[in-house]
Amino acid sequence: xxxxxxxxxxxxxxxxxxxxxxxxxxxxxxxxxxxxxxxxxxxxxxxxxxxxxxxxxxxxxxxxxxxxxxxxxxxxxxxxxxxxxxxxxxxxxxxxxxxxxxxxxxxxxxxxxxxxxxxxxxxxxxxxxxxxxxxxxxxxxxxxxxxxxxxxxxxxxxxxxxxxxxxxxxxxxxxxxxxxxxxxxxxxxxxxxxxxxxxxxxxxxxxxxxxxxxxxxxxxxxxxxxxxxxxxxxxxxxxxxxxxxxxxxxxxxxxxxxxxxxxxxxxxxxxxxxxxxxxxxxxxxxxxxxxxxxxxxxxxxxxxxxxxxxxxxxxxxxxxxxxxxxxxxxxxxxxxxxxxxxxx
Length: 344
Description:
The protein is of the alpha/beta class. The chain has helices at 16-24, 46-55, 74-85, 104-114, 151-159, 174-179, 191-202, 231-246, 259-280, 284-303, 307-313, 327-331, 333-343, and strands at residues 2-9, 32-39, 62-68, 90-93, 99-100, 120-127, 146-148, 170-173, 206-216, 251-252, 255-256.
């Protein structure tokens, strides 16, 4: 078994040694690792550290390949370059400011051998800063594995936010990604959202395991922590994501299903998008696009005769949008979501 590990590198000289060392620590005779390091024109000493570590590597089960971009092309294209160059049985993304635990790959491989038909295996991750596990135990028992082989149930859990929507820490069959043309949207912030949504739409089975396999670093210099510098791009990205989500309802066995869950999922993304627009503003074309999405969301609930859902969606429009700004509304929005789901 070969694992293709894809690590984009850009301005991470503080973290890259730890990240790459965590991959080297996975060395084993039971599998091969193809480590694809994408140099996205990092202006600091990140690649000097990478090259030094590669030169001093003395093991035999890891092969390194450095992919260099001539110009900075962003995280999405860096990951895409890694996918195109990969040859392994499984893909695994690691952000270069994060790292994996010593026996993470042994854990994934052992499950892959036990469940050879599973398309994707997901481990638990933990934030260094916030110190909590990421995966909500779908089976209400965090000490047991959870195997899901029903596409409808998979998408239900995605739409109910019970499954992590990050690209990293997912042990994914490479042929699934290649055959379904699952590449990241270029120029987008929060590109994981659309990519994982399409990924979960394609998988036939997933295995969620309780083991902690990935540590996430809250990097204060990362893209999502610099909104003032990238405000317009962030607003545009959220509008793009919301537009993508509303136009791609789950299709299972050739039929559109999970209408209520899907529209409520889009509604929550819409709330986050509106918050950004109100805080940072947005270009006229972007704001017009947002208005069209809001109307489409409301009109779809009316056409499908979902009165309680339509009432909830009215909070996106004046004068009802004042409710959204109230702390009491935000504190109970998921409860409202639950009641609307039950009544619809």
